[in-house]
Write a structure and sequence with these properties.
The structure holds two protein chains of two kinds. Chain A has 19 helices and eleven strands. Chain A is α+β, with helices and mostly antiparallel strands. In chain A, a hairpin with a 4-residue loop joins strand 4 and strand 5. By secondary structure, chain B is of the alpha/beta class. Chain B has a six-stranded mixed β-sheet, with helices on both faces. Chain B has a six-stranded mixed β-sheet with strand order 10-12-8-13-7-14, sandwiched between helices. Chain B has a two-stranded parallel ribbon with strand order 9-11. In chain B, a hairpin with a 4-residue loop joins strand 4 and strand 5. The chains are: A alpha+beta, B alpha/beta.
Chain lengths: 515, 499
């Protein structure tokens, strides 16, 4: 539930952006915007918004779980956690001794990991090697100043310190009082210049808890993981960002370091700074701190393209939870010329109490308590899913909501939408853009996302024209293309008695540090 | 998958910190802060010199009352062509009759969807969506809300709709039926999320199962609510003299005053709000409670007892103690249970404060079934440790720095400032509550934190609730004491025709 709702909000945010203010407003906005790329390839977007003496920082790394392959799923997110563990100068009492201790952990882990996978291994020997590994971990904590990185930010008055990992990206963000910009410049450059991946295996346990929380112990989490794995048979969008348990139990500190080395190069990062700053004064400081990051090769483009879908796919998950119905249609990437049309389709179907799904399923038939639709699942840089969902009301079935959703889809294919509906789409898009400019972090997030996706942050405004140009005929044409049974993946929770449920496979085969 | 938020537990905890909770949004006039020129490379963050944060004029809403008692708050914010209105109404779900639990929630839904004396609900939906505007209503425990949000150019006509929804809702029967179906769906789904079960049942253990703060909405209580009940509820509470109305955004205050007077001035005064004492369980008594949930891999753990009211003289030292115990990663709970032991993704809690009844001193974590016992021990240890091993000077310094240095974010937007002022007025806090907050925090000493830990944390009298899969636990629940198992099966709907 949480995931769907959050994703829906994300998708609607994306939709709102796909609209433009009059050119004059872009011109006004642009006056306060400075774009600067350092020699090492790191791009900054600075937006001066002096409404309060605070500044928000948003670092976008153009790498996420789409950069993973089988065996290391969850690694992008794992590195995100490690980026809070400090550097050679932060988080340690003695970096040289600590590095030696970390090397011992690595060695002990590999010995233990090899032995536990050896079919003929002596269990006592495996247990001994596990203990050696745990003792090495314990020893390394001697040199630790735990969570110093976060504490510095907290004490300086930082708020909203957080990070997130998705299929397409990993982002890091917080806000500080405007007098402390230099502290951020120091910490953020330091963290990506010289991260020390300390406490890796303990944090891996934390990430496993995060997986249990979000996926294994949450019906909607279980359902969505099954759905994505089915909807994408080749592309890494099929991998869960949190990672499969067997991979979490296996990957190593060196795996995370290698992921960082490959993807955290300046040319693969974009940083937005929004708030009470002066760009001219700020640039020398950014040069000084972030100029330290060595240039590196831009990571290679993804090779795999999801092949054309030629068969409908259906997931029916027996569960003690009440029914939930989801269907997804494979659609092109966000840079495709029809992107705005997909946004318009989703808007007509799902935005507000005038939307077609709400009026049919919730208002008139009363067969669903809630409905929704969004694009860009699980990402939007590559072919992705347009998702439609409904939560049936008690005494109504997945079949009933499916039939009702399908008849709304048929209407889009057979009849043109009304002038009034099309006008609402365009008005909402314009207003949505205005509303999205009221908050520093939100502005930073959008600027960076558009800069990375289109190579130009101005697309945030220019996409206005694209929504303005959408016609009723476009919507019908794209609906006919997209809403095809062989382009569809259906996923539903089928409510059953607990005894009929297949238990989650927690351990994935190999025993680790648990218990 | 879109957003694998890393510190959501922390975020949630922060949100609970009353004065730092984000309330709304908007912007102010502030000077640019000069950045020092680039100098030699800094080796240590401690060597960075910060310029002074320049003086910043704290925005103050203009306040006045209409003759009918409506309290109005205005704050101009000219950055974007938008206007927001928010109303707080003296009402709340705690005043519902027990056999109609859920009434306030239904009213909140149908006040908006059910139409007014001049427009049907569907006409309102079309009207608002055509302008990308919104009007929403809902009712919380001890307050009712109505809000509108529109482009500045649409303000006058949207305000008319907002006014009618607030004053003349008709609660159409067909829209009430939709809201009932949604309420039934929520009841049917209430055992699907382990976190929701734990939160709900823990509240029932603390306040008592029949307390208005924690009693459950059931099929029967939803079915018992009629359209007449909603109209009667509205007639009882929705009077101008029971309403605080705030406006923030792109307007001129003088002309806005006239518009508010014109829209609301002829609404006659009604009965004063009748404050009714709220019933809840007042004793602290230890207990061990368990709920079986067989389809999860984690145990969801809650531990705690009653907290305090906002007027408690120890409110400020307790805020510092909460920060020491669970303020972000450097708080004891996350540092020890997550970072050091790797036992949980989130672990947190605080001695909570509410306005009209005590909040909950509640602590929680989720851990794999196989470490349930170990994690519960760790949680008890931290609570006991807060008493036996009180905050050090270093911890006090960190906690105060964290609270004081981030204080400016309370003024980050004008909407936020407006919402704070309305909140204080609604609950009778001083207008300068936020300004005195700073100095009250500055005064707190380690001895105060030690004293309030002892006075307000009672691990020996706390109730422990675990929701999870017992057969996977590292040790039985009975190792914590005599276990009471809670039945969460959902009572069937009353017999009779359903839809």
């Amino acid at each position: 539930m949480r995931r769907l709702v959050r994703s829906a909000a994300f998708a609607l945010g994306g939709l709102a952006l796909a609209v433009v203010l009059p050119a004059q407003d872009l011109a006004n906005f642009e006056k306060n915007l400075t774009r600067h790329t350092l020699d090492n390839g790191l791009t900054f977007l600075i937006y001066e918004r002096p409404v309060a003496p605070v500044v928000s920082f948003y670092t976008y790394v153009n790498a996420g779980s789409a950069q993973e392959v089988a065996g290391i799923t969850g690694l992008a997110h794992m590195f995100e956690h490690m980026a809070f563990k400090g550097t050679s100068r932060i988080g340690t009492t003695d970096i040289d001794s600590e590095r030696a201790a970390l090397a011992e952990i690595d060695e002990a882990y590999h010995a233990y990991d090899r032995s536990r996978r050896d079919l003929g291994a002596d269990p006592e020997e495996v247990a001994r090697l596990e203990k050696v590994w745990k003792d090495a971990r314990e020893k390394a904590t001697e040199f630790l100043t735990r969570d110093e990185f976060s504490e510095i930010i907290d004490r300086a008055g930082g708020v909203g310190l957080n990070a997130s990992t998705a299929s397409d990206k990993t982002d890091y963000f917080y806000s500080l009082p405007a007098s402390k910009v230099e502290l951020w410049a120091y910490l953020e450059s330091e963290r990506f210049l010289d991260p020390v991946l300390r406490e890796f295996y303990t944090e891996r346990d934390v990430v496993m808890e995060e997986r249990r929380l979000r996926v294994d112990s949450a019906p909607i989490g279980r359902l969505i993981e099954q759905m994505l794995a089915t909807a994408f048979i080749a592309h890494p969008y099929g991998y869960p960002t949190i990672g499969y348990m067997s991979d979490l139990e296996s990957f190593s500190r060196e795996d995370a370091q290698a992921f960082y080395d490959k993807y955290y190069v300046p040319s693969n990062m974009t940083i937005a700074i929004v708030g009470a700053v002066n760009a001219e004064e700020l640039l020398p400081m950014l040069e000084k701190y972030f100029g330290r990051l060595p240039a590196g090769d831009k990571p290679p483009a993804l090779r795999t393209v999801e092949p054309r879908q030629i068969a409908e796919r259906i997931i029916r998950m027996p569960d003690a939870a009440q029914p939930i119905y989801v269907e997804g249609y494979l659609r092109p990437e966000a840079t495709h010329p029809d992107d705005a049309v997909y946004d318009a389709i989703v808007d007509v179907l799902s935005t507000g109490r005038t939307s077609r799904l709400y009026r049919s399923l919730v208002r008139d038939r009363k067969i669903a308590a809630q409905t929704g639709a969004f694009n860009g699942f699980p990402g939007n840089k590559y072919q992705n899913l347009m998702l439609l969902f409904a939560f049936p009301t008690p005494d109504h079935s997945n079949q009933e909501v499916q039939d009702a959703i399908r008849s709304e889809i048929e209407r889009l294919k057979t009849e043109l939408i009304s002038d009034q509906e099309l006008a609402m789409v365009k008005t909402r898009a314009k207003a949505g853009l205005v509303r999205s400019l009221a908050d520093n972090t939100g502005i930073g997030r959008q600027l960076a996302a558009y800069e990375v996706l289109y190579g130009d942050w101005r697309e945030l405004f220019r996409s206005v024209d694209r929504i303005e140009l959408v016609t009723k005929e476009d919507i019908q044409r794209v609906a006919r293309e997209a809403f095809n049974p062989v382009n569809r993946t259906v996923a539903m929770i089928v409510n059953v008695e607990p005894a009929e449920i297949v238990a989650t496979d927690e351990t994935g085969g190999s025993e680790s540090s648990e218990g | 998958m879109n957003s694998m938020m890393m510190k959501s537990g922390w975020k949630a905890m922060r949100a609970l910190l009353a004065v730092r909770a984000p309330l709304v949004l908007m912007a102010l006039l502030a000077p640019i802060v000069p950045i020092p020129p680039a100098t030699a490379q800094v080796e240590d963050y401690r060597d960075i010199e910060f310029p002074e944060l320049q003086d910043f004029e704290i925005p103050r809403p203009e306040t006045f009352a209409l003759d009918n008692g409506l309290e109005v708050f205005l704050l101009e914010d000219r950055e974007l062509p938008l206007i927001e209105v928010v109303a707080r109404i003296r009402t709340g779900s705690v005043y519902e009759p027990a056999d109609k639990t859920g009434l306030a929630g239904l009213l909140g839904a149908v006040q908006r969807t059910g139409g007014t004396r001049t427009m049907t609900g569907d006409e309102i939906d079309d009207f608002l969506e055509a302008r990308a505007a919104s009007v929403e209503t809902n009712v919380g425990n001890t307050v009712g809300f109505a809000s509108m949000d529109c482009l500045a150019g649409d303000f006058d006509e949207v305000l008319t709709v907002f006014h009618d929804i607030l004053r003349f809702p008709v609660f159409a029967e067909d829209k009430l039926e939709i809201a009932r179906a949604q309420a039934r769906s929520q009841i049917a789904r209430r055992n699907d999320s382990v976190g929701a079960i734990a939160a709900r049942e823990f509240s029932r253990l603390i306040y008592g199962p029949q307390s208005p703060m924690s009693r459950l909405t059931e099929y029967a209580t939803v079915a018992a609510v009629s359209r007449g009940d909603l109209a009667e509820w509205h007639a009882r509470y929705y009077h101008p003299n029971n309403i605080f109305l705030g406006v923030v955004g792109d307007f001129d205050s003088a002309s806005m005053k006239r518009k508010i007077q014109a829209a609301f001035g002829n609404w006659p005064e009604g009965a004063e709000f009748d404050e009714v004492a709220i019933e809840y369980r007042k004793e602290h008594k230890a207990g061990v409670y368990f709920i079986e949930k067989s389809d999860v891999t984690q145990a969801n753990v809650r531990l705690g007892h009653l907290g305090i009211t906002m007027d408690n003289p120890d409110f400020f030292p307790l805020q510092v103690m909460n920060e020491v115990l669970s303020g972000g990663f450097s708080g004891r709970l996350l540092r020890n249970i997550r970072s050091e032991k790797g036992l949980a993704y989130s672990a947190g809690g605080r001695v909570g404060a509410s306005y009209t009844y005590p909040g909950v001193a509640g602590f929680s974590l989720q851990t794999k079934s196989e470490t349930m016992g170990e994690a519960v021990d760790a949680l008890y240890e931290e609570l006991e440790g807060m008493i036996s091993n009180p905050a050090t000077e270093e911890e006090l310094g960190r906690a105060k720095d964290t609270i004081l240095n981030s204080f400016i974010f309370n003024y980050a937007s004008k909407g936020q400032v407006l919402a704070q002022q309305m909140l204080y007025a609604y609950y009778g806090l001083p207008v300068d509550f936020l300004e005195t907050y700073r100095s009250n925090i500055e005064k707190v000493k380690t001895a105060d934190v030690a004293r309030v830990a002892e006075d307000y944390l009672h691990p020996e009298k706390a109730k422990l609730l675990v929701v999870g899969r017992a057969e996977d636990f590292d040790r039985p629940m009975s190792s914590f004491g005599e276990v009471t198992e809670i039945d969460i099966s959902i009572p069937s709907p009353p017999a009779g025709p359903s839809d």
